[in-house]
Amino acid sequence: MNAPQRRNLPTRIARRAGQWALGTPTVLFFIMMLALLPFAAAAMLSNWLTVSDNPASDTTARIIALLMPLLLWFSAAFVAWLVARWILIEPLTALRREVANYAPGKILHILALPRAASREVRELSEAFHALSATVAQHDSEMLGALSRQKQLTREIHHRVKNNLQVVSSLISLHWRAAKNSEAAAAYLAIQRRVDALSVVQRNYYAELEEQTGVRARAILSEIATGLKTSAKIQSNQSLNVEVHCDDLCLNLDVAAPLAFMTVELADLVIAQREHATLILSLSLLPDAPLQARYTLESSIFQAAPNRAIQDTDLCERVLSGLARQLRTPLDHDSSAGRYSIVVPVV
């Protein structure tokens, strides 16, 4: 039995018991009348035979002799019904009213039942009290564990975010101390990837309480700004990055590979030292509400013989690995200069 079922168990039992208690008096009365009917019939038949054998008896005596068993029959059933009501029905109705007001976390009190109440009803009241106390204790433990888990999760993500900032700062120091342009470009390429991961981690930490993932538009815009700055520093070129993104949220395990994929393809554009435009687009698929298509488009991605084949092959291997991590194929339209991949959204 899971936690919600356990919390609602007293209410369900009380509802069943209350329905039975409310419908019992009338049914019980008729059952007792049916149970005593053979005795009443036998008494009427005996009195009838006795009166019939006595010619001296008058009409009144005969009527009384016939009606007396019926009166005793009805009286016995009524008394039995009253006793059952005092012993069983009224205590069960009181217990039903008490349990009907039950709410998760509340501890039911043991009812102050009259002495005439049956021992079974008293034990049922005590069982409800023990059950509600157990449920309240389990709820308190689960809430405490959930609170501790949230605190630990926030602490872990906070430390990861801070560590990424430290790593980015160290890479920046090494870039500034680089002796040649190739080493500086390598440090900047590494820093772009670390900064992209930092953007995802920082946005996820900001949205941690809402538990809706990270907003795709925010991370793509911030990554685009970082790419423009890095391209200006590395090759003194103005990289134009356009972002077209629907208002969507991504899980952390989807946002991080997309960020790496964006930086990996942006490196190809920056390495060509040409004035080019990189278009980032994330749009919801009309026939799949929980899926979106992420597209990266640039004229640099078109097939051309003068491109660096080694860098392109390395980029293709990295992109293939990221696509395997996302468990979805990566499409490349070389004629249009477009990469696209379908990813799940929140």
Give a short overview.
It is built from seven helices and seven strands. It is of the alpha+beta class and 346 residues long. It folds into two domains: 3-141, no CATH class; 212-344, 2-Layer Sandwich (Heat Shock Protein 90).
Tell me the layout of helices and strands.
Blueprint: H1 3-53, H2 59-100, H3 119-176, H4 181-206, E1 214-215, H5 216-235, E2 240-245, E3 249-250, H6 252-271, E4 277-285, E5 288-297, H7 309-326, E6 330-333, E7 338-344
Parallel strand pairs: 2-4
Antiparallel strand pairs: 1-3, 4-5, 5-7, 6-7
Helix pairs in contact: 1-2, 1-3, 2-3, 3-4, 4-5, 4-6, 5-6, 6-7
Description:
This protein is of the alpha+beta class and 346 residues long. The protein folds into two domains: 3-141, no CATH class; 212-344, Histidine kinase-like ATPase, C-terminal domain (Heat Shock Protein 90). It is built from seven helices and seven strands; from the N terminus they run ααααβαββαββαββ. Strands 2-4-5-7-6 form a five-stranded mixed β-sheet. Strands 1-3 form a two-stranded antiparallel sheet. A hairpin with a 2-residue loop joins β4 (277-285) and β5 (288-297). α2 (59-100) packs parallel to α3, α3 packs antiparallel against α4 (181-206) and α4 runs antiparallel to α6. The model is unreliable at 17-22 (pLDDT under 50).
